[in-house]
Amino acid sequence: MTQKESIVIIGGGPAGLTAAWEFVKDGGAEHYDVTVLEATKEFGGISRTVKHNGNRMDIGGHRFFSKDDRIMDWWKNILPLQGAPSYDDKKLGRHHDLEPGGPDPELTDKVMLKRHRVSRIFWNHHFLDYPISLTPGLLKALGFKLTMEVGFSYLHSMFRKLPEDNLENFYINRFGRKLYSMFFEGYTAKVWGRPPKEISSDWGAQRVKGLDVVAVLKNAVLKMLPKKRDSSQVETSLIEEFWYPKLGPGQLWETVESQCVENGAKVITDARVSEIRQQNGKIASVVYVDSKGKSTELKADQFISSMPVKDLVNALAEAPADGAVAKKAAEAAEADAKAVPADMIHVANGLPYRDFVTIGLLVKHLRIQNTTDIPTLGDPQIVPDCWIYVQDPGYKVGRVQIFNNWSPYLVKDVDDTVWVGLEYFCQEGDNFWNMSDEEATKFAIKELTRMRLINGPTDVLDSHRERVQKAYPAYFDTYEHMPELVEYLDSFGNLYCVGRNGQHRYNNQDHSMASAIEAVGNIQTGKTSKRNVWSVNTEKSYHEKK
After folding, report:
1. Is pLDDT larger for residue 336 or for residue 35?
2. Is the pTM of this model over 0.85?
């Protein structure tokens, strides 16, 4: 019997758990000894589901959609698609293409729902289409004069393109300077804490993708045609139908973790990686610290990391090089310098992140009227949106989620209460981050009241505040030197960086999973180049064509 290849996977989020399952499924544990180290007690990273008093919060909102068929099939194999109407489907007389033989959401939890996406922009007390499109609603909200300014500004941008060396120019080239100043400039600064002119255009290329005014208009025209389009023909930002686990995204990752353990993987929680030790140009072991402060060294043949790149490089710098544990301090310091070059430490420590606070408010009802033709559960004043982008600069809140519309099973009393989440972008340690739960909740209630979405504090029945560190890798400061850091990390032949924070790339969930699948494939086949691992979510064709 051949000896198993040992694998250590750092992180129990989408990338780490995808990698683990790829190794151990179909009897893979006979060939691979897999250990997952998760720093917390929960699985899914920012794709986890937070449970509070019978209600559930989705951190950031996660649509389960991908142009990569491997990922869609992967999800469906973990949680099968619904084969019968869900609670809200029945109540609203809503019809989906149900999966023949699929489970009934009313009888089992292990099921993936089909959802209709509605997202709009809140601006100047108007609800506008998201993405921005030239509809009668927008024209009415803007008025004749502003509409003409927007139109001429866009025409000007069509004939006079700016160099796309920053995010501001990227947006202006696609939407015109006037729409940019109204809907993108302030919101982008709200999200990132920096003006768009200081941010790399790479972020726009990944998130906005092929979207511009022409794409929006083309999509609007095609929607009116009788022929139903496959999701692969639509820009990701315009996708209108998606899948969603009955009990939120964390349910899927909790299920994956259970299946990994059942199939032979070892999962260790409360295991924060503090050192990564190398020997002869390869990674030799990791050291993790448990909740009691005890350190444990774990050796392996291959290492897959989804921990933040900044933390990864600092863990390498913390560890003695070439096993020089017993060297004198000066010699150890010199060995450390050789192990991780000073310029690489500088790049890693300069990589910026944006942190995130979400405040859940359970309210009796919303004050606004549903003026769409889409029916909603319970109170007729609940709007059908999954989330609302607050692009009005008068508010700190960036988005408002309505959990009732993601899944009725996220809300304990879905017919009589509305469970909303207010999402705030901030920096760890800033004034908003450091607010007490009571202060942050009061702030959120005040903003929701000013937005005229609720009447005031008496409408609020319950609340919960959740902080999320390093939610969004940012594209400024030392980010321009990432290629050099990638080259350095790739020099360790048995280290693979995957996932959003593992690659310092604003990946969606499916991109993180795809990077892990590529890494596992390389290990299984002996492929040495890691270009395929890093190229997920970078090639334009990935976004625009299937």
Report:
1. 35
2. yes
